[in-house]
Amino acid sequence: MTAISLTVNGKLVSGNVEDRTLLVHFLRDHLNLTGTHVGCDTSQCGACVVHVDGRAVKSCTMLVGQADGASVTTIEGLSHGDELHPMQAAFRDNHGLQCGYCTPGMIMSAVDIVQRHVVQNPGGKLDEATVRQELEGNICRCTGYHNIVKSVLDAAGRMSTAQAAE
Ligand code: FES
Ligand code: FES
Fold this sequence. Notes:
By secondary structure, this protein is α+β, with helices and mostly antiparallel strands.
């Protein structure tokens, strides 16, 4: 067993887990945060992406013990109460989802992309080709990606406007 203590969506969580427990299983099975999905067994689909210390990580590739002491954000922790995160709002407004299975991971990856290219890079621009390249690790079986890319570019504008207003 491994003793762990980490922050998940702003709340301190601690306990003992089997050494082999993956972060995704800890989130889903121990904390009931089932918005983080499992879509493959091969680290390819990206349905399981969460943020660990602010960076997008495929949570099926990480033991929860490796996240000891870290701050983890899942899709459930992205909104502020009833107010959607700008990325969530952009996916809704641009029809960036169909079945929704890939969507939590897609949104968590997309937030990280916009953070790196725009929010933390004043004056930086994000174009369609870069979004498509950056989302290579997230598979969607429904949308054909067009509206996902549109959503991310829309959210980039919303997130930089929100930052400028702070
Ligand atoms: S479940 Fe993690 S990449 Fe598919
Ligand atoms: S919306 Fe169905 S897999 Fe992406």
